[in-house]
Design a protein that fits this description.
The protein is built from 15 helices and 22 strands. The chain has about 475 residues and is α/β, with parallel strands linked by helices. The termini are far apart. The protein binds NADP nicotinamide-adenine-dinucleotide phosphate (NAP). NADP nicotinamide-adenine-dinucleotide phosphate binds next to α8 and α9.
Amino acid sequence: MSDLSTQLLRQKLYIDGEWCDADSGSTLDVTDPASGKVIGTIANAGAIETTRAIEAAHAAFRSFGYTTSEDRAAMMRKLHALIVERREPLAQLLTLEQGKPLAEARGEIDMSAKYILWFAEEARRTYGDIIPSPWRGRQILVTHDPVGVVAAITPWNFPSSMLARKIGPALAAGCTLVIKPATQTPYSGLAWAQLCEDAGFPNGSVNILTGSASAIGGVLTSHPLVRKITFTGSTDVGKLLMTQAAATVKKVSMELGGNAPFIVFDDANLDRAVEGAIASKYRNSGQTCVCTNRFYVQSGIHDQFVAKFVEATRALRVGSGFEDGVAQGPLIDSKAVETVEAMLADAVAKGGEIALGGKRHALGGTFFQPTIVTGATPDMPFASDEIFGPVAPIFRFDTEAEVIEQANATEYGLACYFYTADLGRTFRVSRRLEYGIIGVNEGLVTTEVAPFGGLKQSGVGREGSKYGIAEYLETKYLSIGGLNG
Ligand code: NAP
């Protein structure tokens, strides 16, 4: 790691512009998933520190909430420039704590920078309306004001960009934040505090806590000064936070789990489909919410697709994210490996065939072989549960109607993909798939300019795009009378 990465590795809490320890002095270890070695500690904060951070964010909101959009856009452009300048040390920090290949970590930092720049631009476009009045002598105005103090909780799989999607629109709108990154990958989160401080955001506008998820989350969801909870993570934790936030009727945005189907129709461009399959399945070792969970391949093209997909998957190099040419790093922890193993054992017992991989990798630790299972059936856990690992189950299908029904047979509705050369089918199938994000002949779909979010139990609200900032604004209506004297 470079000296700059070491400087960016901050191990304390960041409250009201001060780096501080937990009141108790208690700390937690953070490990490198590739080696299992401890790379540092973090403060183990709880309810007391969380209350202090909320009060600091509230005090900061009193002035930050009234800054001009021009001023906020300028600070955000500075923030963007700092991320671009520190791209390499930030990427190295990310790979160290998360394990993903350095090329992917650089891509994630680039994505963080893009979200910040996008929302620097959007800060100046939170237009209101003037509505034609039904009454003489009155004007009806609609304005959009910042929500207030925002609590943000994020997962370990994209420890930088999941925060960019929340910090960007919140600051652009004029909100202040209290943030809790994942305990397994806290340093990319804490680096945001340093970046925001260096970009000139005032004390208290961005506060970052690490420690007990239930204690911090309990206060964030119940404190009356917090006006909004924005969460990315599992559906179970999202439901819990929504329930807790209900008592004080907070606004909520939830980016939750997925179970993405990837459908290959007989008329698809085979090479393009295989390329998309590799990208959508094995990115971040299969640990993304939009990773393909279920492949559905039509009978006429099934065997050709499997042969090419196996060949392409075999070429993926597994290893430490810091090694050149590595396409797949370790899984986040041993529990993730055990989950994948249990799913595979169940699939084999139900008649699935391992076409490639299927075992822990010879490197040991939490490395796992990229795996393909054919003959998948709806009674296997892949059909209903998130795999979150490098396992590709392949289901065979015959008709369009049958595959749409199977693809929709899940409580999730985040991302899905399908490959076809037929324009009519493109629109027909897109309309019928119950998903918030649809890749047609594309396996990578995330961009700051488009709305990201799910239907059904995959979430509430959208991140990125012009829709992303609306989640951080309240709508006010002014009825101004007596205008005719
Ligand atoms: P997770 O277990 O739900 O954890 C996410 C965050 O919630 C972490 O910061 C965690 O803290 C915190 N948390 C856990 N219990 C909490 C509680 N009782 N109160 C408050 N906070 C609590 O999810 P994960 O395993 O880290 O992430 C994987 C999941 O995220 C998958 O389901 C994936 O699909 C989903 N995801 C969704 C999107 C999307 O945009 N839709 C993007 C990425 C990931 P600790 O780390 O301290 O436990």
